[in-house]
Design goal:
61% of the residues lie in helices and 3% in strands. By secondary structure, the chain is mostly helical. Strand 1 and strand 2 form a beta hairpin.
Length: 142
């Protein structure tokens, strides 16, 4: 094998399936074309793995594949479009910040409920927590 990583090794390192790696390649998500051995087997570089790790973070944070593809296309075009790349990244950054704020509020509510359940379980008064709403007044419902 040529110096580099096999598709299986990249799958193991990135957590992506072999199928997902082939899909990313087909969809133009990789910054550089995947090299091939004479027998047609893919050979990945450390740069490919680094790029995939970044794309995985983008996807995990909710960036659509079309946006990742657009970013990849801009990078492939080379110098001169840095403002557009920055605008794309800033837009996604704002979306992630908003998502974090929403999740923080969700966590606040969940933490509140955990505290209530913990307190009632420690006091031995948890039986009122599992009563159906139709049998408890709104003031008693927790």
């Amino acid at each position: 094998m040529a110096e580099g990583l096999s598709i299986g090794q990249v799958a193991e390192r990135t957590g992506l399936s072999v199928h997902a790696l082939r899909f990313y390649e087909r969809e133009g998500i990789l910054a550089d074309p995947v090299r091939r051995e004479s027998n047609g087997r893919r050979v990945y570089s450390e740069d490919d793995v680094d790029w995939l790790d970044m794309c995985i973070k983008f996807r995990s944070s909710g960036m659509p594949l079309d946006t990742i593809r657009r970013y990849t296309d801009l990078v492939k075009q080379g110098a001169g479009n840095e403002q557009e790349r920055l605008a794309l990244l800033k837009s996604h950054q704002e979306a992630v910040v908003a998502q974090l704020a929403e999740l923080t509020e969700c966590l606040r509510v969940i933490t509140y409920k955990v505290d209530i359940y913990t307190e009632h379980l420690e006091r031995g008064t948890a039986d009122c927590l599992w009563v159906t709403p139709s049998t408890v007044s709104q003031d008693e419902a927790v």
